[in-house]
Amino acid sequence: MTDAASHLAEAASPGSATRAALYLRVSTGRQAESDLSIPDQRRQAENYVASRGWNVVAEYVEPGQSATDDRRPEFQRLMDAALHGGTPFEVVLVHSFSRFFRDQFQLEFYVRKLAKAGVRLVSITQELGDDPMSNMIRQIMALFDEYQSKENAKHTLRAMNENARQGFWNGALPPIGYRIVAAEQRGAKVKKKLEVDPIHAETVRLIYRLALHGSGDSGPLGLKAITKHLNEANIRTRDGGRWGIAAVHQVLTRTTYWGEHRFNTRDHKTRRPKPEAEHAVMAVPPIVAKAEWEAVQAHLKSRNPRWTAPRVVSGPTLLTGIAFCADCGGAMTLRTGKYGRYRYYTCSTKARQGESGCGGTTVPMDKLDTAVAEHIERRLLDPKRLTALLSEVLDRREEYTSRRREHLAELRKRATEAEAKLNRLYEAIENGVADTADPALKARLAELNAIRDQAQADAARAASAIDRAGPELTHEKVLAFADAARKRLRTGEGRYRRDHLRAVAQRIEVTRTEARIVGSKTELLRTLTAAASAETAATGVPSLGLKWRTRQDSNLWPLPSEGSALSS
């Protein structure tokens, strides 16, 4: 409200002309330029007030605000003045009820609040009285306004979804690493697309490298460590600010960065995620490879407390979270003696309940760590043994990929043949041999178009399935993985060493005389595939689980020739 209007409101005295407050609103810039513009609404309102001898004592202007809810600054100022300002006006004048609200329930709610304060809502274009019939008509009008608003929103969203599917940007700030550029002119509208921003794209690539490889010998970094690294290196965000964990997480999880931006993923009011079927996928230039992005997702998932126990990720010992007592199944936890001079793994059940709970064992930490690491390095990470261990899984994988490639070739051949037939028909039409008015020709063209489009869509899905399977695992790649993992188990420190051990073993069952190493063939294959995709053996901590155990004689520790090396 302007100061002049406030003075007019205060100067008004009982018995004077009806005092009116104008509420003027448009929701978009296009409306501001049409017959619903603010100046036009003001002109009609002033004429309406003058014809009735009323006085305008206040004016509230709401440019570019939706009327589907009450989160509007000027609207709130209007209601505050009407309800708590000592009734400075008797009438709120609007161009139409839809300018006040496009929600039937909310409209009635605020009409009644105004009525209790002695204020009427009056529409210039929808004049109604105060009788029950007028109230019913107003409610019906509000229902139609609400329906029209929802229909407009639905059509607008449909158009924006199609715009995104065609590869055009719908507005808003693009993800860091991209910038908006004009793509083409369509009438008066300029269609825009995203292109890679060469400056900030390097920051995105750095974040992915830190997540997969870390900095130096640190191993893969978590979100907090990446954030700290960026800020300490004085690498700023796009607006010059400091990085936060949420911003780093968003960079690492956006599909945009491997070339597939998703639009319409959340409800704009509730912010709840929408089903994937409603997403509009927009092709954009990639900044990182899809395999690299997928390796990062696996790494993030493996560190998620909902999937992996937090002690497994950040525990201070090599076998924390994966060493268990073979007698009772309880975790082997760290115990110390002589003020921390000696460190042991001991059965947690025995530690809590004594011998009556479990007669499990206590093992010196260094002895068990060394035994497990050496056995994995010497036996499981032998390339020939790895190949033999995974031979059945690799054969099934190779057979699956081969069938998929054959199917993909067949689909592409079908699409090419349909395209060739269409081209011959088009040539016949151009040469005057065929008549486009012929119903049979039209039906044949439609049939061939459908065959081609379906074959192309099926081929795209088949190619995507092959890509998701990851790169082919060769003897050389298995050898490179085994070499890297053996080196890290031998020389690595802290979390980096634990990550490599957990890539091949998910459970260690400890008795008084032996330790059984248990793992998952599927998890081992995933580790090898991720290593081949990202060209690194550091793939993060896999999830917990008891999945595989090969022949007992190959998994016993100590080896039969070495005798018993564990003591309680």
Please tell me about this protein's structure.
51% of the residues lie in helices and 13% in strands. The chain has 568 residues and is α/β, with parallel strands linked by helices. Among the domains are: 3-152, Resolvase, N-terminal catalytic domain (Rossmann fold); 178-288, Putative Large Serine Recombinase, Chain B, Domain 2 (Hect, E3 ligase catalytic domain fold), CATH 3.90.1750; 389-468. Strands 2-1-3-4 form a 4-stranded parallel β-sheet, sandwiched between helices. α9 crosses α10 (245-253). The longest helix is centred in the last third of the chain and has 40 residues, at 391-430. Mean pLDDT is 77; it is low at 1-15, 309-314 and 535-568.
SSE topology sketch:
Layout: H1 3-11, E1 19-26, H2 29-32, H3 38-52, E2 55-63, H4 73-84, E3 91-94, H5 97-100, H6 104-116, E4 120-123, H7 132-165, E5 178-186, E6 189-196, H8 198-212, H9 223-232, H10 245-253, E7 260-263, E8 280-283, H11 290-302, H12 310-314, E9 323-325, E10 332-337, E11 342-347, H13 348-353, E12 362-364, H14 365-380, H15 383-389, H16 391-430, H17 439-468, H18 475-491, H19 494-504, E13 507-510, E14 515-518, H20 521-534, H21 552-555
Parallel strand pairs: 1-2, 1-3, 3-4, 9-13
Antiparallel strand pairs: 5-6, 7-8, 10-11, 11-12, 13-14
Helical percentage? 40-55%
C-alpha termini separation: 83 Å
Taking Cα atoms only, what radius of gyration do you get, to the nearest Å? Answer: 35 Å
Read across the widest sheet, the strand sequence of neighbours is 2-1-3-4
Which CATH C-level class of the domain at 3-152 is it? Alpha Beta
Classify the fold: give the CATH topology of the domain at 3-152. Answer: Rossmann fold
Number of helices: 21
Q: How does the helix and strand content classify structurally? A: alpha/beta
Fraction in beta strands? 5-15%
| Residue runs with pLDDT of under 50 for 5 or more positions | 1-15, 309-314, 535-568
Q: Give the overall shape, derived from the CA principal axes.
A: extended
- Say how many strands there are: 14
CATH superfamily membership of the domain at 3-152:
Resolvase, N-terminal catalytic domain
CATH architecture of the domain at 3-152: 3-Layer(aba) Sandwich
The average pLDDT score comes to: 77
Tell me the major beta sheet. Answer: 4 strands, parallel
